[in-house]
Amino acid sequence: MGTPRLLLVHAHPDDESLWTGGLTARHVDAGGEADLVMCTWAEGTVRHRELTDAVGILGMPRPPIMLGYADDRRPESAPDAPRLCAASFDEQVRALTAHIRELQPDIVVTYDALGIYGHPDHVHAHRLACAAADAAASTKLYHRAGPAWRVRSLYFATIPEWMMDLLAPSLFPEIPRDQLPGTPDSEIDVTVDVSDLAARKKAGVTAHRSEVDRSRAIAGFLSLPDDVQHKLLSVECYQRRDLVPGGCELI
Ligand SMILES: [Zn+2]
What we know:
Elements: E1 6-10, H1 15-18, H2 21-29, E2 34-40, H3 46-58, E3 65-69, H4 89-103, E4 107-111, H5 115-118, H6 120-136, E5 153-158, H7 161-171, E6 190-193, H8 198-206, H9 209-214, H10 216-222, H11 226-233, E7 235-242
Parallel strand pairs: 1-2, 1-4, 2-3, 4-5
Antiparallel strand pairs: 5-7, 6-7
Pfam family, one: PIG-L
Keywords: Zinc
Protein name: GlcNAc-PI de-N-acetylase
């Protein structure tokens, strides 16, 4: 088989760059196909425009696919749509199944089961991606949403313990360390060195200008010393779940 095809499923504009930007840039630089499904924010919003810029910086060949639901904490993200977590899960699985069957990815990338740090939209996106990857392979389920397609592996982005140890003192000084997330090394399946792509990944993050202005966590990250930022941007960690024997390796 040729180069595997990637589909990234994210909840919010900026997560694609923060958590999986290095993997995406590496993949497209190597000639691989990659698409992004974004669950929240509607087309035409400022965050959608920023996301389109970020996706271009990462080198993705096509604009993001917007599911158009509202961010759990930002009703202005999609004024005419329900919140991602409140809308019909079956309708969402059907919609994502149709995209999977059309795009035919070998690998679906999303958040881990905790949504990396517990944001309800991230947890929901994880569940949605898992359910749709399974549903897409069924010849009987959602049969009007295209012919069945079997995704070979799921990759779940996670934050390693050591990364949270680096971030916690300056970003979350008021929260006891044992109440913050962080995946131990023993539970991480794939560590991707993206140090050569750190600058591009940071440019992807800062393309989300309105979020850089609003988010205390992103502003805090960008105020860290350059060497610490570089260390944090240089590694991405994933848990891998194979849906067929042998699964699919990243390139
Ligand atoms: Zn998010």
